[in-house]
Each structure stands twice: as C-alpha cells, then as structure tokens.
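pasting Polygalacturonase for the record, 364 residues
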Amino acid sequence: MTLFLAEDAEILGIQDEKRWPLMPPLPSYGYGREHRGPRYGSLIHGQNLEDVVITGHNGSINGQGQSWWTKYRQKLLNHTRGPLVQIMWSNDIVISNITLRDSPFWTFHPYDCKNVTVRNVTILAPVFGAPNTDGIDPDSCEDVVIEDCYISVGDDAIAIKSGWDQFGIIYGRPSRNILIRNLIVRSMVSAGVSIGSEMSGGVSNVTVENVTVWSSRRAVRIKTAVGRGGYVRHIMYRNLTFDDAQVGIVIKTDYNEHPDMDFDKNAFPILENISFTGIHGQGVRVPVRIHGSEEIPVRNVTFRDMNVGITYKKKHIFQCAFVQGRVIGTIFPAPCENLDIYDKEERPVKLSAAQNVTDIDYGV
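structre below
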C-alpha cells in the first residue's frame, strides 16, 4: 500500500491520550520504555507488512505532542508514550518526501524490520521541552538506508537500537547493515547520531557519512552500560562536519538506565572496530571523549584526517579511558596518550603504553 500526502496535506494526532489504543510492550524491552505494562500505540502503525510506502509532495504527519510532553513532565501518564510512526516485523518499507512533526515520543520507529529506506524526509520538534522526540530509531533492523534528510528534534536525531538489557539479550535481534548519509541534524539535548544505549541484541556494519551536525550538545555518540551485553562493532564514520557542538565524538560505557534491577551484572557489551575518517568542524568544546572502563574497554578505534576547531583552550580536549587504537597521520587536536601513532603511510611512529590511563573530565 501507499499512503500519499499531497502538498499542504496534514494528518493530525488527537491530543486526548484516552483515545489512543494500548499495545503490549515490545518483547526486547520487557515493558514500556517509561512505565511497566502496556504502551500507547502510534498515530501511524503497522505490523507484519510487505511493501509499504509513505510518501507525498511534502505533506505532514503532525503528532501534536505538546500535551503529551507536558503530561509526561508532570507525571500524569500511566503508560509509555507512543511513537508517531511505528512499523513492526515488516519488510520493504519506504518513507520519503514528507514532514514528520511534534511526535509524542520517538518519531519514526521501525522495529525488527528489513529493507527500510528513509529519504528526503524532514523531522521537526522543539529542541528543548520535547522529551524523547528522537527522529529515526532503527531498532533490531537490517538493511536500512537513511539519506538526504533534515532532522532537528528534542533528543537524538538518529538512535540505532536493538533491545534493553536481559530482554534484548533474549530477543537477540541485532541492528546491522545500516547506511546513514547526506544528512543535516541538530540535537541540543542529546546527539546527532547515536548508537544505543539499548543495544543488547548487537549493532554492526554501520556507516555514517557526509553528515553535518550543527548547534548540538553532542555530534555522534555510542552509549552502553554494564548489563546490556551485546556488541557494537564495525562502525565507520567518515566525512562528518561538526558546527557548534559541545562534544564531538562520544563513547560512553556507564549509561546506567535499566528496565529493572534484574539485569545481569556480568553482561558486558563489546565495543570494537570503530573508525573516524574525515572529521572536521568548528566551535567544538571537547572534540573526543571515549570513556571505556575496565569491564568494557573500547578496542581498535582508528582516527584519520581529523581537524576540529576548538573553543576550549586548556588540556583534556581529547579525552580517553580504557581505549586501544591508533591515529594515522596528523590530526588536530593532538590525541590522548592511549592511542598508537602511525604516519600517513601507516608505519608505526609511537606505540602507546598507557591504554588504561583516564583523563575523562565531564566538567568541560
């Protein structure tokens, strides 16, 4: 089927939550992301579908999320808010040439889907006061392309997920083979492009390229914690531009949100094989913060061709802890001492003896 939104067409979500259906919790999350028990459904929802297109001449789907955000902050909701558009257990999904606006919760949430394309889509929500309005959240999805989009929202512009702690480990469906390219994104609260923190089914084979992140709290981020299990591996970032970001590159291993306290304290995620090539920008306070830990070290990280203009002139602008990797050629700012140094022909210059040293400083 095709849902076609003509120019100036607009689908509006009703603001009375009592008229929204309740649905079972997602199996890889255990219960609604914000409350136990069922969750609110979505304005546009589908399950077990094949070959679905949502497109148009830039018509809009408007969740009218303002009342949801207010009730969430006032703790007046008894169930988790629903995404604006959610497609589950489906194949061959295309969303193009429309605007998605003011979602109650995550904006577009493909869940356990294959062959998903998002192209020429604008996603908008207030950058402050619109909690959890992620733009696009591929969740346990395979073969995804997100390209030529503009996203400015109240949380992560894009967040790749695959389940939450023991529920995601049991469900066991990874997100993999994802291409994100040619985007302009903004997130004053979270990050332009995130992986996690719900990544217990694993995330692999992700390419993020030709992306501009402007006026944001963080540019690109990987976030996880003890109890997640799973892995994040084979992640490639290239040709990224950071314009006015507080922190450019973040890898965080202590993002301690859990569905309950029954998570496995020995379920340590694996973070490895992550590369950053062609990273440029200006007005960045801390260009890199890689916060591994003794239980969750970050392995085989590569930096090549990086030049980021900074606004913080003191030490600790390239921050590391429990990270192993290398720098190829000359980069700016100078890397932390945890990384091996190679020349541009990839010949070793100086090997690190301090991979576990930490100079993480959240005060900058």
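The mean pLDDT is 96.
The radius of gyration is 20 Å.
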